[in-house]
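Problem: given the chain below (228 residues), write out its structure.
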Amino acid sequence: MSHTQISLLWTLVRIAAIWIASDVGYYILLPLTGLHTDYNNEPLGITLYYAFWVIVSVRIFRHIFKKWRPVENVLHASIFLCIFFAGLVLFAFFVMPKLPSIVWTESWNPPELMVANSWYFLPKSIEILLQQLLVAALVLAFSARNYSIRAISLWCMLIFGGAHLLLSFGELPFGYVVRFTASAVLFASVFPWLILRVPNGFAYSYMLHWFYYAVTVVMAHTVSPYAV
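Solution.
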C-alpha cells in the first residue's frame, strides 16, 4: 500500500471514529451524566455537546481545511447566511408552533423528530454542521488525491449513507432508518459537486441538509396519519 493510500485510509478512519464516537457519546455517555438525549427538552446541553465535536473535527482535519475556501465571496455569503438564519428562526418559532399536533397512542411512541418543538433545530443545526464538516473532510481528502467528482460521489454515497445506518441503534422505526439512509445516499451524490465546484457551495450543502429535516418535520405534522 502506497503512502498516499495509507494517508487517505487514515483520514477515513478518523472521520468514522468521530462519527461513531459522537453517536456513542450521545446515546450512551450523555445519559450517564444525567442529560436526557432529547433535542426538544435539552437543546442547550446537546448543542454544546455537538459544538465540542465540531471543534474536535476542525482541529483534527485542520491540515485538510487549511487550503480550502468554503467562502468565495464574503459579501454574497454573508447575505445568504443572514437570510438563511432569519428563515431558520422564522420557521422554528413562527411556523413550527402552528403545525398540527401528533396523536399519541398506547401502542405508538412517536420518534422525537416527529414531535419536534421550536428548540429542536438549535442542536440539530449544530449536528448538521458536524456532519457537513466530516463530509467536507472526506470530499477534500479524495479531491487532493485527484479522484474524479464521480468517484468521490460514489465514496461519499457509500460512507455517508452507510453512516446513517447507525440510526438503527436509536429509537427510530426501521422504516425511518431506511428512508433516512436512502435520502443520505441521494444527497451525498451532490455534496461533492457543491463543495468542490460551486462558489459558497458548502453553505448550499448545509442548507440542503437542514432543509431535509425541516421538510420531514412538516410532513410528520401535516400529512402523516398521526397528525391532527
